[in-house]
Every structure is written in structure tokens, then in C-alpha cells.
User: What shape does this take?
Amino acid sequence: MRSPVQRALNGRAVEGHRGVIRDEVRRLFTGVVGGEPFDFAALTDQLPMAVIGTLMGLDRDDWSHLTFLTTQAVAPDDPEFVRPEGPQATLHRAHRELFACLQDAVAKRRGGGTGDLIDVLSTMDFEDGGGPLTAGEIVSNCYSLLLGANVTTPHVPNAALAELTATGTYADWAEHPELLDSGIEEALRWSSPTSHFIRYATHDVQLGKVTVRAGEAVAAWIGSANRDASMFPDPYTFDVRRNARRHLAFGVGPHFCLGHALVRVTLEEFFQELFAQFEHFEPAGEPEHLHSNFIAGIKHLPLVATRRKG
Assistant: This one.
């Protein structure tokens, strides 16, 4: 199943959507008024849906609700997202609504020849000859694509801007366009939006003084790995000149994030436009972190922006 979706999201395919991504980023920035406080995280919250929603062919009118539901699904006990019935009921309701919305979208697109990601899933066959995906399998994969984009991407620029404004180093990155790529990789390392992955040992492994037995579950804590001083000297400093390419924000191996090329292009367009439009940012309040045991992120980031003149 992975190969057809991988082809639809590889670097060459994503480059064809760069113009659309740029337009959506510019649209997001139009509402920012220089000199007035605004919530930077509320702005970035819209970013992934503007990209993945377009590529999946989802109705724009549904984007905001789908963004809310995906956040509920990863933070069901966050005070802003929990329902009165409690976290478990919140989780169940978020998933029911998400799957219902996606089922409707699949029903509209199936066999439509639109060429979007839903169409790719609807028309693909298993490589082992197992035939086309069932409606339930298509919806489940739509859910994975949507969740993977929505709950991680915004937290990369959020974490970067929180640190840049706190340390007064925004201008240093903004004024050096040659550091765009290295800065983005550092932002991915720094933010590490996915807190952990669970994997199972296929055979006995000795890790330091601990033996992990075959079949045992292991939680790999991504934020910890991305601050390993043996890999990243002075790891608690945000350094846009660092070579951080070996970070694990996208995972590693056969489960490497399918959307990594899309995320990188989205962040390139976002930061390029950010630096082009805004000269300076100042904190306008304390950041508020998302209450989640799976996603490390900032849900509110009050800032005041200074727009570039001319």
C-alpha cells in the first residue's frame, strides 16, 4: 500500500503543488495586523489543512472542523478539547466524527478521476495482487494522512518562533536566506512534535545495561533522541547553522514519514513568506502547551508582529 501514496507525495510530485502552498501561506498572513497582539499558533493551526485538505480534495468549509477533531483525537484530556463526558468519550466522539466526514468525502470522490489523494487510494491495488482497497480501508488511510499532517506540522514553526522571540534571534535567521534549509531541519529537531513511537523487538537486543527481549515493546522518545549531546553538541541551543539532518522528527527506517517532502516544502514556503513579510516579533504573553501524551506542541503563542515597510 505504501508505494502508490509515496509516489503521490514524493519530492517531484510535491514540487508541482508549491505554488498552491505559497498562495495558502500568503492567505494566512493577510489577517496579521502589525503592532497588534495575535495568536501565532491559531494561524499555524490552519496551515496543514490548507495543504493536505487541498491535496485530498476536501471541502474548504470542513477544514476548520477537521482540524479541531484531529486535535481532539490526540489531546482528549486537554481542557480546551475535552467534552463534559470525559476524555474517553471525547476520544470516541472525535474519531466517530472524523470517520463520518471522511466517509462522506470518499463517497463523493470514489471513481471520480479527480487525481487527488483520495482518488489515489480509491483506485490503487495492493501490490501483492490483493485487489483494490475497501471503503473502510480508504477511510482509515485518509484518517492517517489527515492526522499525520494536522497534529504535527503547526508545532514546528510554533516552537521555532517561541524560541526565536524569547532569545531575540529572529532577525539572525530572517536576514540569512542561505540558512533556510538548515534552520528548518533545526526547527524539526527542536520541536520534535511526535513525542514517541512504539516498536517491538524482533529479537533480543542489549541496550547499555538493559536487555530488551524479543516481542517486548519499546517506547522511543523522539524529543530525547533529538537532544542527544553525542549527536547534537549543545543540544538545548536552537542553532540555525547546525547540521541537524540526522534528527528523528520523521522517524527512521521502513516507517519513515510518508509526508516528509510535503512538510519540508510547506515549511520552506511558510518561513520564506514569514521572513519576507515580517521584520520582528515580540512575545505578547506566555505560550500555552497542548496537554497530550503523544504530541509535543504549543496551542497558543501570543505575539506582536512588526511588518516590513514597503
